[in-house]
């Protein structure tokens, strides 16, 4: 039986070996204990003269191999963990917003879903996740992955579905009275069905995420202070830094520190603009807390991610 994802298969494999080896070690200890307990019981006629005080060879024989085996477990586990987080080159990105008590999914091509996430088979998918209120945790047991969603800070998950089907989503962080009802489903479809599903969706008002984002960027007046073009002479007079090619690039702040402009940084720059000022600019941007919703922000973020030179293949 194929596992629903590549990671799931490897996690199971690791789990199998941890359980098998631990069971083996457990049995060895129990059997030795019972045997020795029986052999040296009260009244048994055994040689009790000169019991050995230490045995270096024996000590090493049970500590070194155990140490090595458990370090191997650790390396394997850490490797799998980083793989489920690392930003691999993705085929598809989905924004996830958790709120009491539902999951909202937003595909970059504009489809919105609540408590259901349709995914194509065999594609590398990045989930970029944020919470609207308290901490939630996105748990996909069939895929053996779990990740907390935090208010104000983005977290990500990578997955690559390998099997068609419907898989349950749970919230695995207590988040209020209806925590147990915060459920959802991942529906993995083959590519033709997925395309068909996409076409059948009621088109969300205005096409794709990035163009919605661009409209919001203009409507909220961001455009008045931030250039979105490759820098030119005119941009010198702008009140805020240019946003051209900003995503995942290093930014120098007034205190000389540098920071990577990832999702969390950009989110903070919108909602707490004076927390981290870019070098060479004054703290004069108003906060957009309570004005731009998290969903609108996702669109704007989608737009900012497009502000870069097209990669030539
Ligand atoms: Cu959301 Cu528990």
Blueprint of the fold:
Elements: H1 6-39, H2 56-83, E1 92-99, E2 102-107, E3 112-114, E4 116-120, E5 125-131, E6 136-140, E7 145-149, E8 155-159, E9 165-171, E10 184-189, H3 191-200, H4 209-219, E11 250-252, E12 258-260, H5 263-271, H6 294-305
Parallel strand pairs: 1-5, 4-10
Antiparallel strand pairs: 1-2, 2-3, 5-8, 6-7, 6-9, 9-10, 11-12
Bound molecules: dinuclear copper ion.
The site of dinuclear copper ion has 9 residues, from loops.
Report on the architecture of this protein.
Helix 4 crosses helix 6. The protein has a five-stranded mixed β-sheet with strand order 3-2-1-5-8, with helices on one face. Strands 4-10-9-6-7 form a five-stranded mixed β-sheet. It has helices spanning 6-39, 56-83, 191-200, 209-219, 263-271, 294-305; strands spanning 92-99, 102-107, 112-114, 116-120, 125-131, 136-140, 145-149, 155-159, 165-171, 184-189, 250-252, 258-260. It is elongated, with a radius of gyration of 27 Å. The chain contains six helices and twelve strands. It has 313 residues and is an alpha+beta fold. A hairpin with a 5-residue loop joins strand 11 and strand 12. Dinuclear copper ion binds next to loops.
